[in-house]
Amino acid sequence: MNLVDAIEKKEMKEQPPVVRIGDTVKVHMRIVEGEKERIQVIEGVVIKMRGAANRKTITVRKMSFGVGVERIFPIHSPRVEKVDIVKHAKVRRAKLYYLRELRGKAARLKEVKKAPTEKKSKVRSRGKKAKAARKKAV
Q: Which residues of 23-44 are buried (b: 16+ CB within 10 A; e: fewer)?
């Protein structure tokens, strides 16, 4: 590990948010105005991710009064308080630049439902293991 990696590792967050392309997220950003600090929440779709380790950034696009606004957030920045994932979407691209040209309902992404948290055991119907399982059940 060289000197740059050692410095970057020290500056990284312990548990960065797990964000994917197409997720709708709420980014809680710390804003300093004069001597006052406040938290501003920006909700939008992640259209781009780039970088790795300490330099990882996400680009979030939202519509503000009919105008598309894109903002780049460094994931490991101390100004980013937290990133909440509102919903996941099914996408087949690494960069969603095509959303810039779309308007209204056309700009929606198909939502992916979350999988149930309970794990179901597989029920085997054939083979030696299935026969052994049936004998145990009886």
A: bbbebebeeeeeeeeeeeeeeb
Greatest alpha-carbon pair distance for the chain in Å reads 74
Give the model confidence (pLDDT) of 78-111 as tens digits: 899 999 999 999 989 899 999 888 888 888 888 8
Sign of CA dihedral 65, 71, 75, 79: negative
List Cβ neighbours of 127 (8 Å cut-off, separation of 6 or more): none
pLDDT recorded at residue 123: 59
C-alpha span between 101 and 94 (Å, rounded): 17
Instruction: Identify the CA nearest to 62 among candidates 80, 86, 78, 81.
Output: 86
Q: Using 50, 70 and 90 to split pLDDT, how confident is the model at 118? A: low
DSSP labels for 71-84?
EEEETT-TTEEEEE
In a domain, 130, yes or no: no
CATH code at position 106: 2.30.30.790
What is the number of structural domains in the chain? 1
